[in-house]
Amino acid sequence: MTTPADLNLAHKLADAAGEAIRPFFRGKFDTVSKDDASPVTEADRAAEAAMRDILDKERPDDEIIGEEFGTKTGTSGKTWVLDPIDGTTSFIAGRPIFGTLVAMLQDGWPVIGIIDQPIACERWAGMMGRTTEFNGKSVKTRACRELGDASLSTTGPQYFSNHDADHFMALAQQTDHKRMIYGGDCYNYGLVASGHVDIVCETGLKLHDFAALVPVVEGAGGQMCDWNGEPLHAGSEGHVLAIGDPARLDDVLEAMGMVGHSH
Prior knowledge:
By secondary structure, the protein is α+β, with helices and mostly antiparallel strands. Helix content is 31%, strand content 24%. It has 8 helices and 13 strands. The strands form 2 sheets. The protein has an 8-stranded mixed beta sheet with strand order 2-1-3-4-5-6-7-8, with helices on both faces. Strands 10-9-11-13-12 form a 5-stranded mixed beta sheet, with helices on one face.
């Protein structure tokens, strides 16, 4: 059972991560490979360690899955999924559109999600059964009458394999070319929730990349699913769609050539 206390704890985790990250932002970056002690790695680790410390104290029986420090098993049926810096490239470039992602899963299903931008102090918080809030105020996705009017976003074309790129480009050709957005990682999903972007299409996402996004987008009236239109959960394999207006779901899948096509 998900409670307001769970959501309050998620906020507390995001606060702690932000405190850890801010001192590193726009620092001196010599290297960016993840396997050394570069500032981005230090920021990642400091933020995840801060979140884990809180969970160890307050929720010793909950499972934790984190990008940096792996999995700690639990017995409560609740799983916290942590991505301290989603959008490493933006972080390194000094662009404040990376985010900290905090999710809680109940029996494998995302029920709480936070997208936190700790530099701009922007936070989207979603919880199953209630309306998503942006900095404490309710937000809604926007209506989109037809696919040709839709703005489409993805982190970058370089992340699609050839096969996946064909599906993505087929969708891109039917949306509004002038409003195509590259770059942004988790930030784009917050913009869908707030009604500024219509569709995000991505592949190769891990659980820590997408778990927090689901309650945020869906709590604002949008829909998150895989490329077959199926809901996202702990076992999903990383093909992700966020659609602000669920009425456009069939149009999106059709444009991508996914109708009757099992991925």
